[in-house]
Structure formats: C-alpha cells, structure tokens
UniProtKB/TrEMBL annotation:
Lineage: Bacteria, Bacillati, Bacillota, Bacilli, Bacillales
Highest taxon listed in the record's lineage: Bacteria
Name listed for the protein in its UniProt record: Metallo-hydrolase
Chain ranges of the Metallo-beta-lactamase domain: 11-217
C-alpha cells in the first residue's frame, strides 16, 4: 500500500491511497485543479484514474473540490447518510446513483483494500474516520475529532502508519486572536485534538513495531510544526521509551503533498 497526504489543514484536506490498481481519494477539500496538480506531482496519477472517492464529513475543508473531482472521475463516492444529507449545495452530486452508503464499523472492500469507517466526535452529521487494511499493510486516517474514545483506540491498533490530528497548542489557542465561541468549539468534545491530546492518545494506540505517524490538520494560527512534533514525541517516548527506536514522526502541509510512501510489514 502507498499513500500521500495531498493537503492537510483547516483550508483543505485530501489523502491519496493506492494498492495495485486500486486508487482511492479520501476527501476533496482543495480545488479540483489543486488536487490534480498534487496527484500528478506526488503520485503521477490523474483524477480520472480514481477507483473510489471517500468522504469523512461535510465540512468545506473536506468537500470543497468534490464536485470538480466528480466531473473528472466516474468513481463511486462513499460517505455516511448523515454526511450525504448535509453536503453543501456546491458539493452535491449530479448523479446520485454514484453515492454509496458507509456505516460505522461495517467494513467493505475496494480492490484488495478492506476499509473500516468508524464514528468520531465532531460537530458534523455522522462524521467518520477510516482504517485501510491489506494483507501486508494497515493505514489509519484520523482527523477532526474532539477526543479519542476507548473504542476508537481498539479499532486503531496495529497499523503501520497513521495520519493523526495534532491541531493546536492549547496555550496558543487560548491566547490567540480567535473569538471565544470559536475557541470553545475547537477545545470542546466535538472540536479538534490538541498536540497533548494526540500524544496521550497515541500512547495507547501505537504498536511496538516500526510505525510512522503523520501529524495532521495543524492550525496555521494556533500551532507550530516543531512544537507539535516535540510535544507528541515527548509525551509518547516518556510513557513508552521503547518507541523511541521504532516511531517516526512526519509532517503534513497545507501547501504541498507528502512524498508517496510505501508501507508494508515486509519492509520490517
């Protein structure tokens, strides 16, 4: 399995995942033009080649380019009924027959990838995160949630890579320019994970084997990449020192895609 985080942040999110001939786009939160450019640059792929499009929830930074992508691709589009019912007008599907319902914790298969959606706590209608499994690799993409439940930690065990939210530094957010109602939303149970939240959640999730964690959805106003990485690393390694030898933290960006990365337990 290979993947690239094409965009990550409050202004747009998208992840590309492939395994053999199966090519999946998770969220389309940047313009169709930007998606095509980043797919070509990082993955040497075209939107028209997509096998499937998955959506986590209906917020603009996850569906901004959905309509444009759907015009260039004939792939089916997977999301929960709640997300579909609450899509903004500009993201609505012209051909509703392409809509495929996903339900929390009901796994389905696209090509050789088994996909498991699971509920997350966010201020959207029926939002989900996704886990992707093949016979030799596992990836989880977990963003846009106010906390990580024990059940979610169970579902996230034993992946080879995680794209995991580390949205804000709480002190920066509290002291920053955002109005209080927005600060309260971000800090709430249906908001976003802080760097500290991410670190403590990962303590209970990460395997003892080599694992890559891509810190995602970093706030441009209330976080710094160095701070996010340092905070998460310190919390995880202090609690589980042996992870220092196997954990690799990586960064995602609003402006550019990450390198197309192969994950496989056979590499270890």
């Amino acid at each position: 399995m290979r993947f690239s985080v094409l965009a990550s942040g409050s202004n747009g999110n998208a992840v590309y995942i492939e395994d053999g001939e199966t090519k999946i786009l998770l969220d389309a939160g940047i313009s169709g033009k930007q998606l095509q450019t980043r797919l070509q640059f990082a993955c040497t792929q075209e939107i028209s080649n997509l096998t499937a499009i998955l959506v986590t929830h209906e917020h603009d930074d996850h569906v901004r380019g959905l309509a444009q992508v759907c015009k260039k691709s004939q792939a089916p589009i997977y999301m929960t009924e709640g997300t579909y019912a609450n899509l903004p007008d500009k993201a609505r599907l012209e051909d509703e027959s392409r809509f495929q319902v996903v339900r929390e914790e009901e796994s389905f298969t696209i090509g050789d990838i088994q996909i498991t959606p699971f509920a997350v706590s966010h201020d959207a209608e029926q939002p989900v995160a996704y886990r992707f499994d093949t016979p030799d690799a596992s990836l989880a993409v977990v963003t846009d949630l106010g906390y990580v439940s024990d059940r979610q930690k169970e579902l996230l065990q034993n992946c080879d890579a995680y794209v995991f939210e580390s949205n804000h530094d709480t002190d920066m957010l509290r002291a920053g320019r955002y109005p209080w109602h927005l600060k309260r939303r971000i800090l709430g149970d249906k908001g976003h994970l802080s760097n500290v939240d991410a670190g403590y959640a990962l303590i209970d999730i990460l395997p003892e084997s080599p694992v890559e964690v891509y810190l995602a959805h970093l706030s441009a106003d209330n976080n710094l990449p160095d701070l996010a990485e340092l905070t998460v690393e310190q919390i995880v390694i202090d609690a589980r020192p042996r992870l220092a030898e196997v954990l690799t933290l990586k960064r995602t960006s609003r402006q550019e895609a990450t390198t197309l990365t192969e994950i496989s337990r056979a590499r270890v």
